[in-house]
Design a protein that fits this description.
Chain A is mainly α. Chain A has a two-stranded antiparallel ribbon. In chain A, a hairpin with a 5-residue loop joins strand 1 and strand 2. The N and C termini of chain A lie far apart (about 50 Å). Chain B is of the alpha/beta class. Chain B is about 45% helix and about 15% strand. Chain B is built from 15 helices and 15 strands. In chain B, helix 14 packs across helix 15. The longest helix of chain B is centred in the first third of the chain and has 22 residues. Chain B starts with a helix and ends in a 15-residue tail after the last strand. The chains are: A mainly alpha, B alpha/beta. At the A-B interface, helix 1, helix 5, helix 9, helix 10 and helix 11 of A face helix 4, strand 7, helix 9, helix 10 and helix 11 of B.
């Protein structure tokens, strides 16, 4: 299939294809991080993850509208504020949901699947009633559009670079919070042994609430960032949920490193295969490989002890 | 219950009788003047439909909830507008239209169930509804079993024809061929890259397009790619497009994927003012989500654009906006949905009856001169004669009309040489 193309062409395509893989990797990590915390650390099967993401996307859309109407001079920078607001909104909703719904279900992890699935349906219909059934278009500042011109045939999408930087930043922050901060130690203590953690004076209920809120907040940031590359509508969250669970489960539920390793292997397989065959077939083969590996290693790539 | 069973037994016989009657030129036998007053209910309704001396009931069956609500909302709005306008003009055969709206909830078995409810319990005279081919395929056996009349608005893949359905959207050849001819001539295009969502409509449409490109236009298809519905990552296929450098990218990607595709195309530095792209799946409705700046310059092949400059459209667009808000946009399917109630009204008046068999028989030849798209006429195969148009997307989310066929294009749901 390469016979017709010059070496230069091929070289630049391989560079760009490598880049496409890296972008896909960042997207996977970003959407899976929040779930890795909620599902991985807390054992809650959060089917409403996509809807928390879309809340972030809608917050971004509203922020962009407000900036356009009232502060057009600051429009080029609105996205950063929008991401912070998205984090706050999704995080706050997450904490509310934890208080109302999830905390009653910690002893019945499978029931969280049903409860959060119901929650996702309710949120979808709420978005539809509030924002309308049609998709909304989020307008981006000019500097975020288009691509960086490297050579004549190599062009790097700016939004891809943006997502990569954002993913790196958030991953570093999450790793720091979970593994270096006092609060992170509390979270891990609760994960490993709730009763003992309570006995040494950790307020486990509070830890649960903030952990869930953090996971949802990160989902909100992801949703906000994805307005650059995807759609924003009441059911758009559904587009991400399968891939997100795939990444987290494949990586090994309780391990952040596992999530990253799994996002990397899935995205690279997917994007390499996509180049040689049609997108649907690439997806089929990727899923087959994942199923195969999970049969041999049911605990995922990296496994830690999970809360029982 | 026994009543229903009886009807079921009787209906094949009745259908045959009525089909025989339809062969008799019914219209000429009825005095024209009778349309002016209200004809007796017993005369215009011999099959027990929900029709009184002052009212006739029809059904609206679309997804108001679920994934498809994005697309079907426009159709619901258009149908309600048409019904309101018809009522303001005095209704159909002197009867006001009352509608019962059911929600298909983006779920195909639900569509079938609701269609049955509308026909059996509510005894509606006609149903305006369905959007996806999957929902139509689910409803079709119900329509045929209980002898209902469905007005279906969406452009679709063809390969279907039923006495009980009027297809007010384009079938595949009507939508695609003229557009391909135009772009081949206008841009001297020889190589095409196809990309679509992976389900029946894009696959059938691309099959037809490929035959046309290879056999008629003597061009070459340099790539044909499908992505699962809902896919949000298109960077690989965009790289392939860059590698193969096609003259034209021909797309039928749908739903949320559409938004992702155009955003990533733009981000990858493909400039649609230089790279020709012809889509058959993006209307003004979709651009709302995609954003005008991401798709400006692309060509869309449709039969209607909101920006069409004709007297019918100039009254239609403001009426629509008055009813549904200044910000709403009107896409191709929304306009096709608007035709449904009107075509039904005109056919009922032509047949002088609400009976489904008479309407089915009277449909061919019914013309609607006030259609926003211009002029349409129902073909013997229950599809519409209509023009094919090509528009170029602008920054503000509207299309600028670039080309339209000189004559109405004949609908051909079973195209020879394309299967």
């Amino acid at each position: 299939m390469f016979g017709d193309y010059s070496l230069g062409d091929l070289g630049s395509i391989f560079v760009m294809q490598g880049f496409a893989g890296l972008i896909l990797f960042s997207v996977y990590v970003l959407m899976a991080l929040g779930l890795a915390i909620i599902f991985g650390q807390m054992g809650v099967i959060n089917m409403a993850h996509g809807e928390f993401m879309i809340l972030g996307a809608y917050v971004t859309w509203m922020t962009s509208n407000i900036f356009q109407s009232y502060l057009p001079s600051l429009f080029s920078g609105y996205f950063f504020l929008a991401m912070i607001l998205a984090f706050v909104a999704s995080g706050a909703l997450g904490m509310l949901v934890e208080w109302v719904l999830i905390r009653h279900l910690y002893k019945r992890p499978l029931d969280t699947l049903l409860a959060t699935w119901g929650l996702s349906l309710m949120l979808q219909q709420a978005y539809r009633s509030v924002f309308g059934a049609r998709e909304v278009g989020v307008e981006l500042p000019q500097w975020m559009l288009g691509s960086l011109h490297v050579t004549d045939s190599i062009e790097v999408p700016i939004n891809g670079v943006f997502v990569m930087c954002l993913t790196l930043l958030i991953t570093v922050c999450v790793a720091y919070v979970m593994y270096k901060s006092r609060w992170g130690r509390q979270v891990r203590a609760v994960v490993q042994n709730r009763v003992m953690a309570g006995a040494v004076g950790i307020n486990t209920e509070k830890v649960d609430r903030y952990t869930y809120g953090l996971g949802c907040g990160i989902a909100g940031i992801a949703g906000s960032a994805f307005t650059m590359i995807g759609s924003t509508g009441p059911t758009s969250g559904q587009l991400y949920i399968v891939d997100t669970f795939l990444v987290v489960v494949f990586g090994g539920a309780a391990s952040l490193l596992g999530t990253i390793a799994s996002a990397f292997s899935i995205s690279q397989t997917q994007s390499t295969l996509e180049f040689f065959m049609s997108g649907s077939m690439a997806k089929v083969l990727t899923l087959l490989a994942v199923v195969g590996i999970l049969m041999l290693r049911p605990q995922g790539l990296f496994a830690l002890k999970v809360r029982k | 219950m026994s009543d229903k069973a009886n009807k079921g037994l009787l209906s094949p016989l009745r259908r045959k009788l009525l089909m025989g009657m339809a062969a008799v030129p019914v219209i000429t036998m009825l005095p024209r003047a009778s349309f002016a007053q209200t004809p007796a209910t017993s005369a215009v309704n011999t099959t027990g439909l929900a029709i009184t001396d002052t009212e006739v009931t029809v059904g609206i069956l679309h997804s108001a909830t679920g994934t498809m609500a994005i697309s079907e909302t426009g159709s619901i709005e258009a149908e309600k507008l048409a019904i309101e306008q018809i009522n303001a003009m005095g209704g159909v055969l002197g009867r006001k239209i009352k509608f019962i709206q059911e929600d298909g909830a983006s779920d195909w078995p639900t569509f079938a169930e609701k269609a049955k409810k509308l026909l059996v319990n509510d005894k509606v005279a006609a149903i305006m509804g369905c959007w996806t081919s999957a929902s139509r395929k689910a409803v079709l056996p119900v329509m045929e079993q209980y002898n209902g009349m469905l007005y279906y608005p969406t452009f679709y893949e063809g390969l279907e024809q039923s006495k009980n359905v009027i297809y007010t959207g384009q079938e595949a050849t009507q939508q695609i061929l003229a557009g391909l001819n135009w772009i081949a001539k206008e841009k001297g295009a020889k190589s095409f890259f196809f990309i679509g969502s992976d389900y029946i409509w894009p696959r059938t449409s691309n099959k037809i397009a490929r035959k046309h490109v290879e056999n008629v236009l003597k061009g070459k298809v340099v790539g044909e790619e499908y992505y699962p519905l809902g896919n949000t990552q298109f960077n690989s296929v965009i790289n392939k497009i860059k590698l193969t450098k096609p003259d034209v990218i021909f797309t039928d990607v749908v739903g949320g994927s559409n938004v992702a595709f155009y955003k990533q195309l733009k981000a990858a530095g493909i400039d649609l003012s230089k790279q020709a792209l012809l889509t058959i799946s993006v209307t003004e409705d979709e651009i709302d989500g995609i954003g005008g700046e991401n798709i400006a310059g692309a060509y869309a092949c449709m039969k209607y654009f909101q920006s069409l400059d004709n007297p019918n459209n100039k009254t239609f667009v403001p009426a629509f906006k008055t009813m549904w808000g200044e910000k709403t946009v009107i896409g191709d399917v929304t306009q096709a949905a608007y035709l449904g109630p009107w075509l039904w009204k005109l056919t009922v008046e032509k047949a002088g009856s609400f009976d489904v068999d008479k309407i089915a028989a009277a449909s061919p030849g019914v013309e609607f001169k006030n259609a926003p798209e211009g002029y349409v006429r129902i073909h013997e195969n229950h599809h519409l004669w209509s023009k094919t148009r090509v528009g170029r997307a602008k920054l503000d989310g509207q299309f600028e009309l670039i080309y339209e066929t000189a004559d109405l294009v004949e609908p051909d749901p079973f195209p020879k040489g394309y299967q």
